[in-house]
Amino acid sequence: MSSSIIYKNIYIYRAVMNALYFFKYKQRFNDIIALLSDSDKQVLDLCFGDIYIAQYCEKQNKNWIGYDTNSHFVKFAKSKGFDARCADLFEEVSLPKSDVCIISGSLYHFEKDLERLFKRMLQAAPKLLISEPVVNLSSQKGFIGSVAKKLSNAGKGEEQFRFNETSIIETLNKLQGPLCFSYKVISIKRDIVIEIKQNGN
C-alpha cells in the first residue's frame, strides 16, 4: 500500500511536521536527547524517521543504530553516513543490544501489538525513551481530521487509533507488571515523554 507523499521526501515531511508542531518540531527530539546520559553509548532508535537524534549521537561519540520501515528515510540517513536499517518491526527483526531504546511519535502504529513490541525493546535495552503525541489532529472529526489521517498514512493505510494522555498511561499500567518495568512521565505537552526502566536498573 502506498504511503502519503510526506513519507516519500524528508524535506516535505519536515515542512509538514513543523507546521503541525507550530515550528517546534525539533523539540520532540530535544526532549528525548535531554534524557540521554553519558553512559548511554549504544543508542537504538526505532521508527526514527528523521536524523536529529542520530546527528546528536554522532557529535557526542555515541553509536546510533536506526530502524525504519520507510526506505526513503533509511536511504536519506544512509546518505549522511548513519547506520540506518530498513525493517518492518511487525516482523521478527533481531534488535541489537543497546544501552537505550527510543521510539518517537510511532507507538500508535503498534496499538494491537504493544506487549510484544515492549518485550522486544526491553530485551534489547534496559532503558526505553518514548515520545508520543497525545494531542492529535487525526483524532478530530470533519475535514481537518480526514486530511490529517490521509497525510499520516505511513504505508499501512489510514490508521484511526491515536493515544491520548489517559489511554497511554492505562496501557503502561497494564503492561508494567507482566513485563517487569517501572516508568516515569517526564513531561506532557503536545507529546508525552516517558522514561521506562527494567525493574532492578
Summarize the structure.
This protein is of the alpha/beta class. It is built from seven helices and seven strands.
What's the layout of helices and strands?
Layout: H1 10-20, H2 25-33, E1 42-46, H3 52-59, E2 63-68, H4 71-79, E3 83-86, E4 100-104, H5 114-124, E5 127-133, H6 142-151, H7 165-179, E6 181-188, E7 191-198
Parallel strand pairs: 1-2, 1-4, 2-3, 4-5
Antiparallel strand pairs: 5-7, 6-7
Annotation keywords:
201 residues; alpha/beta; Rossmann fold; 7-stranded mixed sheet; 7 strands
At the fold tier of CATH, the topology name is Rossmann fold
DSSP helix count?
Answer: 7
| Number of individual domains | 1
Number of strands: 7
- The general outline is globular
Largest sheet: 7 strands, mixed
Average pLDDT taken over every residue = 87
Structural category is: alpha/beta
CATH superfamily: Vaccinia Virus protein VP39
CATH architecture: 3-Layer(aba) Sandwich
Write up this protein.
- By secondary structure, this protein is α/β, with parallel strands linked by helices.
- The chain has one domain (5-198): Vaccinia Virus protein VP39 (Rossmann fold, 3-Layer(aba) Sandwich).
- 36% of the residues lie in helices and 21% in strands.
- The chain has helices at residues 10-20, 25-33, 52-59, 71-79, 114-124, 142-151, 165-179; strands at 42-46, 63-68, 83-86, 100-104, 127-133, 181-188, 191-198.
- It has a seven-stranded mixed β-sheet, with helices on both faces.
- It is globular and about 40 Å long.
- The mean pLDDT is 87.
